[in-house]
Amino acid sequence: MRPGDELPPLRIPITRTLIVAGAVASRDYQDVHHDAELAREKGSPDIFMNILTTNGLVGRYITDHFGPESVLRKVAIRLGAPNHPGDTMVLTGTVTEVDGNTVDVRVVGANGLGHHVTGTVTVEVGR
């Protein structure tokens, strides 16, 4: 593993069920994450994914790549374009730093509107 190495992309279909289940699982009951009519009243074309679901998907992307013994040490993400039902988010990652068994990965999750999430994940890889 070296800086510049790229992780294989992960395509995640953004379904209504994924958005609602992620919001409920993270106890985020804001109506914009489950009620399309109220989301439209607030200016959104549909419901949209919450940051905790996105954070979980970024974590899954990293641990799926580095294996079950990897440990997320830091996740710093920022949201951009919303994830709406019917779109697909493609997560990509690039190794930016390696220090022993600690790896920093720059992560981008893009959808049809642009970058949904950008950030950096520090992961301790298994021995």
Automatic annotation (TrEMBL):
SUPFAM superfamilies tied to this protein: Thioesterase/thiol ester dehydrase-isomerase
Sequence ranges assigned to domain MaoC-like in this UniProt record: 10-100
Domain of life: Bacteria
InterPro entries noted in UniProt: HotDog_dom_sf, MaoC-like_dom
Family named by the database record: Belongs to the enoyl-CoA hydratase/isomerase family.
Protein name: MaoC family dehydratase
Organism: Streptomyces wedmorensis
